[in-house]
Amino acid sequence: MLLYFWQYLYSNYFRFWLKWFLRQIHGKCELQRICAESKDGAYRTHRIEYSLEHSKNKVLSKINLRICLLQISGYKKLFIEVEDVRKRPYDSDNPEHEWQLLELWDLLMPHEKLKSRITKQWGDIGFQGDDPKTDFRGMGILGLANLLYFSRHYTEESRTILSHSNHPKLGYSYAIVGINLTEMAYSLLKSGALKSHF
After folding, report:
1. How many domains does the chain have?
2. Residues contacting residue 29 through CB under 8 Å, at least 6 positions apart
């Protein structure tokens, strides 16, 4: 009973004055002190949670910190995963990479078979040389993953865009533009510009 009474007094009266006093001495708020003084781990997390739950600040009591923290960690996790895929180079000795590249061809050019793995036919879907692996240098396997995703999930649209890319005057290299769009999206993700979209 005495313990509950002490907790009530501390959380409703003494804690406020203790926090005020420590802020005057250290020049930092409670959260800054906890982060600076506590080691990583459960103890620090528990102290931060306690501080936020018992704050008299009306703004802190209204926000859902859990959702904010999930968004922050989710964005960072997404970037780490994307960066991991981007750093992985296209490997012609990797059967999965080769299968994905051939699937891309089949999705975009269903009525035309490749004569060989290294061929000028790759230019028909917008690669620069006889071997598409050289075009994936900057974005790694991420460039192929994006081209393949678009072709799998938007097959008709991707074929229409490929058809437009072959226009005699206004044409462009479909695959190269796709890889460049991947690089643009990656740069926006890396800079944090996409945070407002998640």
Report:
1. 2
2. 23
